[in-house]
Batch of 4 targets.
Target 1
Amino acid sequence: MSFPSSDSTDTRRPVEGLSHSELSAWLDARGLPAYRADQIRGWLFRRRVDSFEAMTDLSRRLRQALAGEFTVGSLSVHRRLESRDGSVKYLFGLHDGGVVETVWIPEPDRVTLCVSTQVGCGLGCTFCATARMGLKRNLTQAEIVDQVLEAQRRCPDGTRISNLVFMGMGEPLANYDATRGALDVITDARSGMGISPRKITVSTVGLLPQMRRLMEETRVNLAISLHSVRDSTRSELMPVNRKYSVSQLLECCRSLPVPRRKRITFEYLLISGVNDLMADAAELAGKLRGIRCKVNLIPFNPHEGSGYSRPKEAVVERFGETLRARGIQTHVRRPRGDDIQAACGQLYHAAEAAPGGALRGVG
Ligand code: SAH
């Protein structure tokens, strides 16, 4: 592929970062018909070719003009780690030496891809490995889209990605425009990837204005990392709670334009001795009353130096039962890929600042 990597004189942009109208405008400026945009996008997002050369029904002149200004692809594969449970973690290299992680999660009836939206994260949640990196930078729209394209290209038996979760590194709603632009391409049924928004979940710490925008502008599912309904506990775990308190967050949830047949997902991390008492479950159920929602319980996934631990299985079960007994639809999320540090909250790496960004360590 035409990944320009560390050549800093190469000013070409990845073509998959262009919206349909930007590509049409580029064609129009050259006196070319707008339908060429659909054709080019078909090659990119349906057939997933990795060069303009491969777009054989375009004239040579057009292919050369495209290649003069754009690249195809923005990621290189640094590493590919396969878990004993079949999950695959990709470490994708970026043109500036940064690295992001993407996780392929096969299940009997679906394949879910977990994508990243930032290099590192600036929100400082105390239980999350990614937070230790700090925020390096936002990913571009092309870099988000390319995680899906590259993971799909590299699937050996051609199994199709059916579901997408924006639960990798970073806070998607702190990088709203790129996330939104990527969602447009991914869900565009006419000339994009055509993945239904019903199969896509965006997870957020709860940035209220952007959450509302996302619900107004798209039809994707919303997941909110809640982890406690007590302000003191939640602020300790998630500094963002000092900006948007639990009651502001839940009030916002009550007024979000969520379609009638949909529910908001609340993710609730269970950390031993922090938020796993039966009284916490009862309080949680009480606070969620009247919100059309479900709860995903995530037993804490350990990582080096976190200082937290996972509750015993019986505690997790009882917490779930307490919620269910109070009418809250509840699932316990089992960790996937924890042997390759691919589970929730385990995405972290140290990349060298030197050009080329060789990896120092993983996990
Ligand atoms: N910033 C967004 C997207 C990241 S999603 C968000 O916070 O929602 C990652 C999910 O994994 C979040 O629900 C997060 O709270 C959870 N998580 C983070 N660290 C974890 C850990 N060590 N064990 C289990 N889940 C964790």
Target 2
Amino acid sequence: MKTSINEFIAGLEQRTPGENEFHQAVEEVIGSVWDFYMQNPRYQKANILGRMVEPERIIMFRVPWVDDRGEVQVNRGYRVEFNSALGPYKGGLRFHASVTLSILKFLGFEQTFKNSLTTLPMGGGKGGSDFSPKGKSDGEIMRFCQSFMTELYRHIGPNVDVPAGDIGVGGREIGYLFGQYKRLKNEFTGVLTGKGLAWGGSLIRPEATGFGAVYFVQHMLKQLKMDIDGLTVGVSGFGNVAWGAITKLNELGGKVVTISGPDGYVYDANGIKGEKVDYLLELRASNNDIVEPYAREFGAEFVAGKRPWEVPVNVAMPCATENEVGLDDAKNLAKNGAYLLAEVSNMGCTTEAAEYLSENIVYAPGKAVNAGGVAVSGLEMSQNSMRISWPREEVDARLKVIMENIHETCVNYGKRSGNVNKTDYIKGANVGGFVKVADAMLAQGVV
Ligand code: NAP
């Protein structure tokens, strides 16, 4: 039986009430793969899309822990094992007060397509908790991570599900999680990625998402016959991903003029580089606010309560969180002459903003732009399995090739009927990611 796209979305909304972020992510994908799906009856017959929007498994659990005052706290833990057609579930853990099942479902759904785009053998998953490490002591974070893993360890494994970091989960949290897994299972395996270098981590992993995003931007610019050297770039956030992107942009001659936090942004016309980046890292390690102290220290402008997209830049790279670029921001960027927006955060743009940017300038979605992070996680898994570690140059070279291939996939599947010279990166990334997963699901039968 043939359904229309509207009936499909309405059915999903009815089955998953209130999961707004998940609906947004599904709509974005379905909108661009629908025609392709309709042209391929074998996918319809096997109800591939119907199965793709239903996670294979969701685990939800209580995470009790004791704070520094001796009081018992409780948070909620999740792991959404979305799709294992291409390999073990793979995707980060997010620790942030805003985490809900809907957010993790959107992230796990996106992750499935992203992992497919890398061409590495990884399925899609995502997990986390409504616990925020910000403002907590190291001891509190360790006790939380140990409690979280005390339940999660039953559901993951190097050939089953391999979590990594995301917002609020960096090297410190991965260390505590790994330590507890090792203690409970009595085995040293590559069950998490983003590990420390001395105990199974990969070189370049901390920088990979940001570096990969900049490599992707290089290819986007090449299509426009431009280069990063000499361009101004607006970045948001200042977390792990923003740091990697800023480092590589500076190396290639770009000038980064903004960073941001939940309370506002900094505009630094002289460029955020060198000792300024080191200072930001120190602030970040101290668990303190970053943006305002930076402005004070270096005499830059702090704009409270606003997003950085009102600043004229050539390239915009949102690196903080979902829906951080709305339609008005998108219009501002285009009006001020930006050539492109490369989304580094997951679903960094609202649907309207993404559509506007895609039509009026050039826009590429997070699942393509930020796939370098999970790609190097995949390389970390390979190194762990082989019990070797590749030198920095080798990992970086592989990352560059992967990002080039993802860009090529977007160009191949993202041809526009009206304007053959301009790539539709939304369609390119979604159809390119979809095909491999769909074919694997077909081959594996109704499971
Ligand atoms: P992170 O290290 O925790 O940094 C997040 C940054 O965003 C911080 O600067 C944070 O500021 C800021 N932020 C958080 N919520 C915000 C809000 N509501 N408004 C404005 N700023 C906000 O996380 P990350 O790993 O860099 O991840 C950033 C984005 O990249 C996320 O969308 C994530 O899903 C995506 N991503 C990450 C990876 C990875 O390898 N880590 C891979 C692919 C995609 P405060 O610290 O002051 O809260």
Target 3
Amino acid sequence: MTELSTSPRVAVVTGGARGIGLAIGHWFLAHGYNVALLDIDGVTLDQTVADLAQPERVLGVHCDVSNSSQVDAAAKAVVERFGQVDALVNNAGVAVFKPALDISFEEWRAVLGTNLDGAFLCTQAFGKLMVERGRGAVVNIASISGLRASTLRVAYGTSKAALIHLTKQYAVELGNAGVRVNVIAPGPVETEMAKLVHSTAIRSDYYDTIPLGRYGTTEEMANAVGFLCSDEASFINGQVLAVDGGFDAAGVGLPTLRRGGKPAS
Ligand code: NAD
């Protein structure tokens, strides 16, 4: 039995300067955690930390998660500041959507570097701190693109599928030390990333294909992540949770049947 600390819990969120990562940061702050936000975009990160206006509870760390020495330095900075880590959310991600035969090796490496290497490195660095204390939770942010293949996602989808497996690998080993590791697979969420890669036509296809008929919100992603980090999820380990309005359950479905047999107008 590990002695429970009375000091506030500490959460580390990568890619926390904006979007889903920032919403996750808000969730942790609202639930009493101190929060370290790691991001490669120092300008946006500084602005975000200033906007949060809780300097005693929020630490911004300029860090490229695909760079092992920067990740090690970030872990050191978090420990120096807050003394412990209770939750890690590997949220930092990049998307390049290009045909499989056209995407360059550099683009492939860049996507894998952040989306997969970043989670590997951060889980090593911050996971060690949690294992030492015999408790903690890691949540990775994958994507529905990691659950099923689709066009233009050879790098992005492969990185997210690998991240889902990485989750299970870490869940098996860190679980032995009392640290749970899970992954969510978001459907489309209205963020800067989505604005970049979702055209009007793609949006309309998503609306048609998602049973709930809309994009998810960043808060809905944060609620799922927060739950998986919380004591309420104390026996959940190595699981992938699709937070996608039913997209994964429905797959492509049969659009004509969904329209009650009527042809598309
Ligand atoms: P976003 O682009 O708005 O935010 C991503 C953040 O990660 C940015 O602040 C960026 O600077 C940071 N980042 C990128 N590379 C980094 C690196 N190497 N090191 C540190 N920080 C880095 O994106 P978002 O939509 O909020 O996406 C967050 C996560 O959710 C990503 O992993 C993404 O793949 C995943 N996701 C998003 C959607 C969606 O529709 N928006 C759907 C499924 C999954």
Target 4
Amino acid sequence: MDCLFCKIIAGEIPCDKVYEDEKVFAFRDINPQAPVHVLLVPKKHMRNILECDGETAAALVRAVGAVAKREGLEADGFRVISNCGRNGCQSVEHLHVHLLGGAQLSEKMS
Ligand code: AMP
């Protein structure tokens, strides 16, 4: 399968990895939109949130918490986004969650 994030998880494309567990892999976004911008992806390929099962969703949420604490975002907060499909401007068709923080973020989300 020709999937960018599957290749990153497999180590075929380099990344700045920040976290890994049995189900989740996380690395810094190549084009950061905030001082901390981490992408968390399930190791198992799934296109978007519509294909996500409960176990994977729980693993992603746990990993978001772990990475947020590791990155020092606990006190001041952060934002979690998952773009889905064309209207959501999803550009990589492997489910991913953006974790953004490290500064005051915009009130606008659209
Ligand atoms: P989305 O637009 O929600 O699909 O997010 C895809 C994200 O992947 C974008 O924020 C890109 O900057 C990021 N991205 C694309 N290629 C890479 C890469 N090789 N390493 C890290 N992040 C990447």
